[in-house]
Amino acid sequence: MVVFKARGLMPPVFTPLNDDYTINYEVIPAYADYLSKAGIKSVLVGGTTGEHMSLKVADRKKVVDAWVKAAKTTGLHIQVQVGGAPLADVLDLAAYCEKAGVDSLLTLPELYFRPQNVNELVSYVELVAKAAPNLPVLYYHIPSMSKVEINMPAFVTAATARIPNFKGIKFTSNDLSEGAQVLRALKDDQEMFLGADTLLAPAALLGIKSSIGTTWNLFPRLAQDILDAVEKNDVAKARALQEKLSLAIETHIVEGAWVPIMKAGMEIVSGIKVGPPSLPQRPIAEEARKRIQDKLRNLRIIN
Fold this sequence. Notes:
Layout: H1 28-37, E1 42-45, H2 57-74, E2 77-81, H3 87-100, E3 104-107, H4 118-131, E4 137-141, H5 143-146, H6 152-162, E5 166-171, H7 176-185, E6 191-194, H8 200-205, E7 210-211, H9 220-231, H10 235-253, H11 258-270, H12 286-298
Parallel strand pairs: 1-2, 2-3, 3-4, 4-5, 5-6, 6-7
């Protein structure tokens, strides 16, 4: 029986790049150490933040290997997102991850011949799950990017009935009403990870306690403080901390697309060199980076 134990905050890690767009593997051990010391217990490799949809399969495998190796000293649970590629490559990556010592998988849907209904989506995830039958497999719901808009409570119920190692979803949507229905549809050994950083507190009030958010890389302790405040029924504190996090996020959003702004923010906040985004995305301008830095100082998030 496949067991899935990851819970709580799971940062989707950046893929560090050098200025010539080659992957900077050397920085990964220090990056893993930084997260582990901040209280993080699990990471997602290859998500939207990790830009694996833009990388060669061979490079994706090397990044996986680097994180699995880093986990040996930090004890991090390594989840890998294998989708965003032709199906043959997705299945190859899933099988590779199982052999490489990864702890769990996440998969996007097919992004070109998109599934049109619950049954088609379950069939796709089932193929991925069968390629790595000993690993927990979760589905990555991100309709803003994938344009796959299928009812998630119905999908979760059908996937659970058909796929033995199906263990939950990453729910990247602001629709907390649907999110609450998903949570109700899941079994005890499954988990739902929210993918909306600005809704951490309200989601926690609904019982959604796990999340995969880019900004957990930048502000892991602030995110944990929000969850702790909700747990202690300190609604006023949870609201104030959520407002602080949301303002920090809004500081970035006005300056460009999600990954380029967050890579810049990560360097400002942590000092870890994650480099430019992978092509075709472009780094933000130096002036934009300075504006983010100044606003984060004004919010007293950095010194």
